[in-house]
Each structure stands twice: as structure tokens, then as C-alpha cells.
Amino acid sequence: MKREIIQTLDGSTTIQIKEWDECYHSKHGAIQEAQHVFIKNGLSLFQNKQISILEIGFGTGLNAFITFLEGRKMNQSIDYVGVEAYPISAEELVSMNYVEELNATDDKGVFEHMHQCKWEEKETFGNDFSLTKRKQLFEEINDLDRFDLIYFDAFGYRVQPDLWSTAIFKKMFDALKDNGVLVTYAARGVVKRSMIEVGFTVEKLAGPPGKREMFRARKLV
């Protein structure tokens, strides 16, 4: 499928799959979406704690990079696992302007190395952030009681409903530790029903720019 680089409304870039009319991030603002959904409503719940994060999927690396930057500000020790079956190309990587838009030129090497480091091997960035990229399908995830937080950032239900199924959310529920949290930009009723069916307690929150609502789900004990 043909992919092209587009600029979102906050000035940051993303990748669009033309055949699906689907983007890796919100057209209303890639960085704004990541900060609202995954940092404000996810990472910020764990300030000053050592946490483990699972990202579904790694994509452009934006969520991982912002988490690295924000974790450093909040004095968090983070073990980050990013799952991605179809990595972006080197050409697409150099077209991403996240370093500039985040005023993070001193960490340009970090962002680049996040993409260049080997798959299936843990890499350390600074003293308090480690990254393991796993090249696998979401259906192949079989972690148990491992993560405090999940960033669920799959392509939308409209184009890939199978990624939002009860079977997938059961894997997410099992992968979380007790009292773990899953955050996603999605807010469809069918998604909420699948989450509840596997045991999640789901709350509806204000969405990022351009989207009215989003979900946060908890594995309560």
C-alpha cells in the first residue's frame, strides 16, 4: 500500500496510507495527540515510579520518543517495549520532524537510534530509559502480568477491526500487572464492550484535538 508523508495541523508530520485514508497519527496534530492520550492520560499517572510500558505499535517512534523526554522530566525509570510488524523505512524516518517540533535537537541521536537499534534486543538510552523493539504481530503477544501501562495505538477500527477484538484485548488484559492501565485514542462503543468483556474497567475521557472522546481502561483487582 502506498504511504506518503503529510503535515498535521500542529505542524508535526505523520504517515498516511492513501488506500485506507488512514494515518499513523491524528491529522489534527500528531504530537498533540501523543501528549494528550499517552502522556497526560497515561504516563503522568506513574510519576516518580519505575514502570514498564507496552506500545501497540511502535510506528514512527513518536510515542517512544516523547515518553523518553517526558520520563526524564518526571524522574521516571522506564522499561519500554514497542511492538511493530511493519517498520517504517529509513526514507520515511528522515522525513519525520519530531525532533525539531519538540525542541529536542540535543536528543536527535536518541530518536535516530531508537529506529536504528536492533530488533528483539534491549537498548539503554541515558540512565533511566530502556527500549526493546519487537517485530511481531499483535496476535502473537503473550506477555503475562508484565506491564504497568499500555499505549494502544493500532490503526483505527474502521480499517482494521480485528486489531480491536475481544481476543486482542484479552492479550492486553493478561499483559498488564494488577492495577495496570491501558490508554487509547479510540472511543467506539464496540471497543468499550470488548474491553469490558475481558475484565477491564473503562472510563471515557476528553479526547485530543479534533476528537471528542478517548478511553482509559484499568485492570483492577
UniProtKB/TrEMBL annotation:
Keywords assigned by UniProt, alphabetized: Methyltransferase, Transferase
Domain MnmC-like methyltransferase residue range list: 139-219
Short name of any one Pfam family annotated for the protein: Methyltransf_30
Species, as recorded: Flavobacterium gillisiae
Phylogenetic classification of the source organism: Bacteria, Pseudomonadati, Bacteroidota, Flavobacteriia, Flavobacteriales
Protein name, as recorded: tRNA U34 5-methylaminomethyl-2-thiouridine-forming methyltransferase MnmC
Gene Ontology molecular function: oxidoreductase activity, acting on the CH-NH group of donors; tRNA (5-methylaminomethyl-2-thiouridylate)(34)-methyltransferase activity
GO biological process: methylation
Gene3D superfamilies linked: Vaccinia Virus protein VP39
